[in-house]
Amino acid sequence: MTLLQNPRQLFVKALLASGFALVLLAIMTVMADRVSAHGYVESPASRAILCKDGVNTDCGSIIYEPQSLEAPKGFPAAGPADGKIASAGGAFPKLDEQSSTRWSKVALSGGQQTFTWKFTANHATTSFRYFITKANWNPNTPLTRAQFESTPFCTVNYGGAQPPMSYSHTCNVPTDRSGYHVILAVWDIDNTVNAFYNAIDVQLSGTSNGDQTPPTVPGNLNVTNVTATSAAVSWSASTDNVGVAGYRIFNGATQIGSTTGALSYNLSSLSANTTYNITVRAYDAAGNVSGASSIVSFTTSNISGPDTIAPTAPGGLHVMGSATQNSVPLMWSASTDNVGVTGYQIFRGTTLVTTVSGSSLEYLVTGLSANTTYTFTVRAIDAAGNVSAASNAITVTTPSAPTTYPAWSSTQVYFGGNKVTYNGVNYEAKWWTLGNIPGTPAGDVWKVIP
């Protein structure tokens, strides 16, 4: 038997279906926007990266993108709202669940500690700042700015430059408190209104003066699999009176990598036909650092023959900030190449807009028209002229230009429905008028056009 549905039932079903489609579209839009993901604190491990690594559980979608904790900058005066600080504004609400037992904690001592950021897009940077919860904070209530010290215990100014894809620096963690605390790491982007926020759950043991014994020197340093741009480094474990927290890898006096316990490290983005002098040092939770291992030197291979290998496609192309009526700010993640990326080509549709240097990961496209849809892609190039595949394409519609009408005149007779512009505001006459100034008590004949 066939069941007949009345028109009202059909209408309701259609409405529900269209509503679901709109919700799905909104979700897809949000997820696409999250591709503009950029960096996280790798060590001491942040709440988000411990979620990705499976140490923290029941974390929600942050496990797929721990680098996405982006919100307006200006903390503590501005930034994410109270109760949404750990999630950088609420996009990942699971991170805002707060209790003394909810999150795994990193053992840390007061005193000098190394903080390492891992970037997927290394934006021009103003500074890195670190805040810590007050001595009497309540770990069983949602995180609020009132629970943090108002002044960062460490600020590393970066002057608008771009850090490397992995960047480490030292800070003196306060020695006047112990037990469970939260460190809020803030990465302030230089040329946008946004920053990145990472909550780090730590178990503090107070002053580091109690442990002043450094680990033993790492041994048996070895380098293998040397190519023109990479090499593998390995060593044997150090020992410590309390415990080894990790290892730092140096080229000469410059730190070029670190691990949190692993006894090997893959060096990448090296220069061809270049000599490197590698050493490794161990460190413990109190910040004590061992002596340097023996030096192992190696020279990357020289690339023979013509370079026919194109760079990889740029990733994560997105609008960084907001489009205006005639401009769109673009940003993308770096490409890699067997020799080196020398530039990036920015395309509007199939038209080459410009080429920027290989160290630039952003560009402001100008000269656009209002209320117009544009599609952009980026390609990487190397010195041999090899061109990568296109990045992901993004489509942007510039905002509409504001509507303007003839300027109001004190000698013009206006009738109901006539429209004018006065002092940058648009008005419509309600009835006949002459000489009544819009926007004044005497000009109540005029109504503002939204």
TrEMBL record:
Q: Could you list this entry's UniProt keywords, alphabetically sorted.
A: Carbohydrate metabolism, Glycosidase, Hydrolase, Polysaccharide degradation, Secreted, Signal
Please give the GO cellular component terms listed in this UniProt entry: extracellular region
Tell me which Gene3D superfamilies the record gives: Carbohydrate-binding module superfamily 5/12 (2.10.10.20), chitin-binding protein cbp21 (2.70.50.50), Immunoglobulins (2.60.40.10)
Q: What is its main location?
A: secreted
Instruction: Cite the Fibronectin type-III domain residue spans from the record.
Output: 217-303, 313-401
* Alphabetized PROSITE patterns for the sequence: FN3 (PS50853)
Question: Where is it located?
Answer: Secreted
Q: Does the keyword Hydrolase apply?
A: yes
Annotated GO molecular function terms are:
carbohydrate binding; hydrolase activity, hydrolyzing O-glycosyl compounds
Q: Name one GO biological process term.
A: polysaccharide catabolic process
Q: Which SMART domains match?
A: ChtBD3, FN3
This chain belongs to which protein, by name?
A: Chitin-binding protein
Organism in which the protein naturally occurs: Paenibacillus paeoniae
